[in-house]
Amino acid sequence: MTKEMLGEELMQAIVNAYQSGGKVLICGNGGLAAESEHFAAEMVGRFGKDVYIPCFALTANTSLITALANDIGFEEVFAHQVRTLGKKGDVLIAMTTSQSADIMEAIEAGGEMGLFVAVICGQKSVITSLCDTVTYRMQGEETAAIQNDILSFLHYLAYNCKRRLKGESHKKADG
Known about the structure:
Helix content: 40-55%
Radius of gyration: 15 Å
Distance between the termini: 21 Å
CATH architecture: 3-Layer(aba) Sandwich
Largest sheet: 5 strands, parallel
Mean pLDDT: 89
Shape: globular
Number of helices: 7
Structural class: alpha/beta
Low-confidence stretches: none
Order of helices and strands: HHEHEHHEHEEH
């Protein structure tokens, strides 16, 4: 299946959240932490279209992350933010190339709160969750290849969510 076909449900969830006053929360570790911030910048900024979608990278506040890691444990750094910032109807995008404990906890927190939870991961990532999630598995065997696919998928999502909100049809993202 192409990323266009795979992304439809997530794209619609983001559009629905925006139209009802909601937001997107996104998280990942390592390179995917950087991609979380990249995606948030494209959603809130003027990437592709003059539409600004509230999106928060849960990876962006190092003071908060290190305080939470110290106070409640690293496994809870994203879940705590989901519980504090999220509300029913929001979207959580959780990304991993493995099965990171902090990502799994965020997924569970999002599900418990009634967020639309999407997991973007590699083909071999073992995602076991007690809540309903939509899982998007990227191609590639190596972490770098998976991350490249994830970046392309995130560009596609950001660009086409904005196109949809402008009343335009889908198109490939330029960047």
